[in-house]
Structures
1.
Amino acid sequence: MKTQPLSRRDLLLKCAAAGVLTSIPSLSVAEAITRWEAQEAGAKKITPWNEIGPFYKRLAPQKSELRAPGDPGLPVAISGQVFDTSGNILVGAKLEIWQADHLGHYDLDGYRYRTTLVADSAGKYFFDSVMPGHYPDRVCQHIHYMVTAPGHQPLITQLYFATDPVFDGDPDKNFTRDPLILSRELVRPVALVGDPKDIHAAVNFELVLGRA
Amino acid sequence: MLPTLLAFALTLAVPLASQQHHEFLSLPTPAPATGFVISESGTVAAAPCRDGILRVWSLPDGKLMQAINIKDRAVDVTAISDDGKFVAIGDHQGRGSVWETSSGRESSPSIYLVHYPAAGAFSHDGKLVAFSVPASIIRMFPSSASSDGIRIPDSADTVAFAFSRDNSRIASVGGDTSLHVYDVNSQKSSSASTDLLNEALAIDFTADGKQIIVAGGDKVVYFIDPATGKTLRKFPKVADPIFALSVSPDGTLLCTVTLHADGMSLPAPIIIWDVASGEKKQEWTPPAGALGGGWTADGHLVVATASKDAIHLFRMN
């Protein structure tokens, strides 16, 4: 006879009955399991790593407006929240962000399209920029992040855009066309918002750091 | 020897403007080469090619010694021992492999590097080859078929590394401009902040091992105290980022390879500097993007470019 697999809760109760799962005296097993399940429900996976280069630059000034008036390129608003793996927001996390301009050029002599942000009291960040251009040594458009928070491992990653022509409209299938994209999670959907005469893109990019 | 791009030409006695750099050897390749390395002995060269073959030639005759099958392996780094006895690759699937150039046999089983490597190089005594992966350097010992890993604490990605001439230390730069030095004998490592603002892309030791030379997006060559990370001196700023550098075997010259703003496959200047004075001795832009090259023990700098069916070798000085 085929037996039904145990639910997670039943499995844990069985472990408790077998003595291989115990709880602190002030907490009943049932209550401990309830809290365990709540923790797992709120748990988040660490944002996948992606290589740092090129052209990280220290000491970028804090500014949320990376796009200057008249800058060519599609305006894009990027926002998100910073969490730890338990789902807690990381207030004060530092985000160093940098990208190429609409032609794919990095500013090495100054700080155009570079910023250092601090996650606010809700763990949120926001900046206004332009869609980065393609350049010959990388297949896809991308924005670089280096995120640090006390007690957590630094996160180095990159944000990619599902609207990138390289993906031919199917990032699920084609994200590997860029050999440096190791995870589909880093390719984010793009919303086009605003007045048709003044359209801009909006992207949400949540970041999760692991404990040190 | 440079694991990536590097090219010089110009004798000290001839004014820069009148220098001619001639191709001295052409190595046929049925498919375009994707990298090039030359041994410091000047006797062996190797190149992975798009047809899935790692080709090895003897120099200066250009005779094909080996055609090693590396099909389905996307090569990220290629390295050759100073004596030309071993050649190694690290691929995008995260495998490192070493072959004997004389026989074409793998000298030890391939190893799993955990991640695709950013750089690879042999120690100057040829006893080991190392690959850099995020926050670690993986070492393979071809003669004993073993390997280990050196974890680099607080490193934001190791972009480049180098062995000291006496093989006692490995220095690496993180993408966050941090410097790390690992002492092979004591197995202790140290980390230091540098004065670099932009990401460092290249590193080497001075011949005496007392200073570390670093360059990158700042477009400046820095000479750094290994213990403190402090800048001891700098060369004048150049027009473009420096993404490879190498000290000549006798320690008197330094070569830097710059990166074209529109792509690293485009031709960009290669500069030879006098280490002691910091003077620019030569500056040359090859006819095509430099594919690779390196110093030979007799003090020449060899630069390779590639066309669809050959590798073209130029000698500077």
Note: DSSP finds no helices and 28 strands in chain B.
2.
Amino acid sequence: MSDEWVQIRIPATYQSLKSLEQPVEGVLAGVEALAEPESTAYNVLLALHELCTNIIRHAYVGEPGWIAIAMRIERQPLQLRISVLDQGSHTFDLNQWLAPHLSEPSSGGMGLGLITQLMDEVHYQPCAGDNRWHLVKTLTCLAPNTSHPIDSTLTTSATTGSLRK
Amino acid sequence: MNITIYEEQQGLVVVAPLERLDAFVAQDFRERVGEYLDTGVSNFVIDLSDTPFLDSAGMAILVSVMKRCRQAGGDVSLVWPKHEPVKRILQLTRFDRVFDVYETRKEAVDAMLVTLGGQRERTAL
């Protein structure tokens, strides 16, 4: 069982990324008793922001364009699914990417590492003019009248489906 | 970019971004701090306590400024964001292993001034 897709389209500009906040919070507001709602919303927002930044920088490379984003909550298991489509003429070779160690800050390249840390699954289908990213975040709800998650096995794990490190 | 900058004693500069520090404003932030670096300032406290959002571009600028300052014999200290999710991301990316990070601006400034005072004494000897 899933909720409806929430779909937005933003210009591929850094300035437009501020507009991601409301849709992300809106989608997560549909999950009753979400554990750590503020952190969850921020982490999802940051991952999506980093992805869009990479698209602007590496897929469009200064060219004008759009980024289409669709999000929805799936209930069994409880997850947030995000699909991102861009029409940039450049693609990214994920197999060549070496994840920077987030154990030490660097003066560049941390964006994709953050995405893989903050989301549970990251999938990428490169195709010039039709690049697609799919992100999945496992969500946890609090049990009624407690501060404990209902199912402790529903914890975040850094499973990156399509990445080869 | 909405940012507060003021000069403390002994050439220390305090910089406080009051809005998102992200890819959109990163260049502006770099230039504003760069104006001080170009005049020889090499000690900064960057107060993130009221910074509501920080992305990898913003983090990269902080690292870049820190490296430049250390090459010039200075340093950069940070103040933890009050917004807990932002703080957690800095902890996740181990910023506290590379920077001295303090809970308040006062603590950061006081610590930096003690260090600067000690450096001046050694130079004078």
Note: Chain B has a mean pLDDT of 92.
